[in-house]
Amino acid sequence: MFDLPISKLVLGTGFLLILIGLWGMLTHRNILRIIIGFSLIDTGIHAVIVSLGYVAGGTAPIIDRALPIQEASTRAVDPVASALVVTAIVIGLSVTAMMLAYAVRLYDSKKTLSIDALADSKW
């Protein structure tokens, strides 16, 4: 039977989301699709970070009878990765909201979301 650890599956899914988001950002000319690509990259990075902090068969990093101090370094799940991802989710949501607000303002002023029609914003 197919035996793939969940952390490897999440890691692969994260990299796939990053690639799909990068493809979406580089190939589309619509600002909303670019924002969606950015969100996919953001979510993929979160999945990669969580999968890197995961320990198969691990437990919460609380030293007690279930996790003696001698086994803490090998069995405890890294809490830094999870805390980092929670913070990154909030920051990513804020950045996405700012990009969407900018897209709405841009559409109100230019009546288009194509970056090709926005020649005045290019260098």
What does this structure look like?
The protein has 123 residues and is mainly alpha-helical. The protein is built from four helices and no strands. Helix 2 (31-53) runs antiparallel to helix 4. The longest helix has 32 residues, at 79-110. The radius of gyration is 20 Å and the shape is elongated. The model has no long low-confidence stretch (mean pLDDT 88).
CA(first)-CA(last) distance: 56 Å
Derived from helix and strand composition plus strand pairing, the structural class reads mainly alpha
Give me the oligomer status.
single chain
Strand percentage:
under 5%
Low-confidence stretches: none
Helix content: 55-70%
Radius of gyration: 20 Å
* Whole-number mean pLDDT: 88
Order of helices and strands: HHHH
Largest sheet: none
Q: What's the total helix number?
A: 4
Annotation, overall tally of beta strands:
0
Question: How are the elements arranged and paired?
Answer:
Blueprint: H1 6-27, H2 31-53, H3 72-75, H4 79-110
What are the main properties of this structure?
mainly alpha, elongated, 123 residues, 4 helices
In summary, what is this structure?
This protein has 123 residues and is mostly helical. It has 4 helices and no strands.
